[in-house]
Amino acid sequence: MITFATTKTPMFEFENKKTTCPDCKDKSCAAAILSREELEMINFNSHESVVKKGEIILHEGSLTSHIIYLKSGLAKEFVKPTPESEQILSIVKEHTYLGLSSLFGDRINHYSYSALEDVKVCYIDIAVFINLVRKNGNFAYEILVSVSRDSLNNFHRFINQLHKKIYGRVADGILYFSRIIYENTTFSLPMSRQEFADLIGVSRESATRVLIKFKDEGIINIKGHLIEINKVELLEQISRKG
Amino acid sequence: MITFATTKTPMFEFENKKTTCPDCKDKSCAAAILSREELEMINFNSHESVVKKGEIILHEGSLTSHIIYLKSGLAKEFVKPTPESEQILSIVKEHTYLGLSSLFGDRINHYSYSALEDVKVCYIDIAVFINLVRKNGNFAYEILVSVSRDSLNNFHRFINQLHKKIYGRVADGILYFSRIIYENTTFSLPMSRQEFADLIGVSRESATRVLIKFKDEGIINIKGHLIEINKVELLEQISRKG
DNA sequence: AATAAATTGTGATATATATCACATATTGTC
DNA sequence: GACAATATGTGATATATATCACAATTTATT
Fold first, then answer.
1. Which of A98, A197, B30, B228 could form a disulfide with B142 if both were Cys (CB 3.0 to 4.6 A apart)?
2. Which B-chain residues 132-161 have CB contacts (< 8 A) with chain A?
3. A104 vs B100: CA distance, rounded Å
4. How confident is the model over A198-237, as pLDDT tens digits?
5. Residues from chain A contacting residue B101 (CB–CB below 8 Å)
6. CA–C1' distance B193–C27 (Å)?
7. Interface test with A, best of B151, B158, B165, B240 (most A CBs within 10 A)
8. Is A133–B144 a contact, with Cβ atoms under 8 angstroms apart?
């Protein structure tokens, strides 16, 4: 059996865990197929924590010491191409591992993650995690499915982004929150206009202009962060056209 | 042990294999750790073929029946956002599996692949491949490493593309072929100007203008498809600046 | 509740690149 | 080798969006 480098101690203190891994109701699909013994092993080598809105969960460039599981809440995955600009790659929902591709890629975190609202995370020792992958092919298969689906989803969004003009991008962004994140035509945008612009790859002023135009045209209603889609089909058409 | 749906018969005839899998000198890193028995099992359930330049290896939208291994040559991975436009996502070198993320994602091919020159490919039955993943955690781990690294590499290119202007994109494109594909400052671009433009996400005329400008400024030499980089540091600076 | 800081929305202007048209060069087919 | 088809390079023009400046609004802090 292969073992790995010792894990690094996180810099901040953990809250005591309220639920053990075997009894956890927020397991990932992959974890759900693990045996009780395997879950106990994870339980013994992991910690749960609450991260407050706006706080960094994982830094780009840092060494992966733990695999981080987003138990509840929303986070944003982003990079800073320059010190004063930020590009948001995707929004991460609950029941998702953060940085899997970085872990298996080269052990360095390629993206940063921060909490968009107060979130619960579990830090799982990577030696234990990797050992489970190597020993349990079915578990490895489920992790492969996760990494693959994340990759496909994010690629599709990037491909769309690359060939669409600003109206299509704004429409895509709105539909992303409606369809993928909240599964509702009414939702509260969990970020500033600047962050929304960073997600869809346009300037803040341009994003605001188009949002206001969609509002003036009755396609959506806006009240601060609250967004309500009135004309779904029209928005989808704008999304398709680009 | 779990087994999967029967594989579909490929539409075209295979050439007889010249080398068995255990004796193959072009194995992937993952395949290199398989036992002789496991390699014999793959050998028994796979075929080798030559695909000519310009021919499609795998169609977007098709159902995955085989995992395809690029034994030698170059291919391009692309999508067609509209019937008359094409976006090249990446260039695939030899010793790479095609469409791994689609296989593990949802069994439908999300991208198309075509040969940029005559290539050799092996078609491996996916039931056998997936069975090996489930049974051999170390093999699964290596496949995870492959999928993760592909994902990281392609994401980085997309992130760069999204925030760079045209000069940075052309510089990136040239350096991509020099550093990643050919590992040489002199190489023959294995595609038309239109395809190069499709890879970096600009119009054909704009790509040509910048290439000619780089040539006029002595940064590169161009002779048809042949490109020679004269000022690597300057090109890298342009690449960084975007 | 007052105040400071940050965010948002708007107007004006600058600029980067796409698009269009077309001549020339290169490649493929017979 | 001749000819057709495709690719390339260039000039002119259109257009989309970024940038800048700043007033108004909202949020955070005390």
1. B30
2. 133-138, 140-141, 143-145, 147-152, 154-156, 158-161
3. 15
4. 999 999 999 999 999 999 999 999 999 999 999 999 999 9
5. 147-148, 151-152
6. 14
7. B151
8. yes
Compute the CA torsion angle B161, B164, B167, B168 (nearest 10 deg). -70
The answer to whether B101 contacts chain A (CB < 8 Å) is yes
* Alpha helices, H only, chain B: 36-44, 100-105, 126-135, 137-163, 166-175, 193-200, 204-216, 232-241
Q: Using one digit for the tens of pLDDT, what is the confidence trace for B14-60?
A: 444 557 788 888 888 888 888 899 888 888 889 999 999 999 999 99
Helices (H), A122-192: 126-135, 137-163, 166-175
B155 with B172, same domain: the answer is no
Does A110 sit within 8 Å of B152, measured CB to CB?
Answer: yes
Residue A18 confidence class, pLDDT cut points 50, 70, 90: low
Tell me, what's the ipTM? 0.86
CA distance A76 to B86: 30
Residue B134 lies in a domain: yes
Nearest residue on chain A to B104, alpha-carbon basis: A145
- Give the CATH number, domain containing residue A133: 2.60.120.10
Evaluate if residue B3 carries a pLDDT over 70.
no
CA A192 to C1' D24, in angstroms, rounded, equals 17
| CA torsion angle B94 B12 B88 B96 (round to 10) | -20
Instruction: Tell whether B62 is within 8 A of chain A (Cβ).
Output: no
B158/A162 Cβ within 8 A: yes
Look at residue B77 and give its three-state secondary structure.
Answer: strand
> What distance in Å separates the CA atoms of residue A99 and residue A89, rounded to the nearest whole number?
12
Residues B68-120 have pLDDT tens digits of 999 999 999 999 988 888 999 999 999 999 999 999 998 899 999 999 999 99
A215 is in which domain, residue-wise?
164-241
CATH number at residue B196: 1.10.10.10
Separation in Å, CA of A156 to nearest CA in chain B: 9
Gap between the Cα atoms of B23 and A65, Å rounded: 39
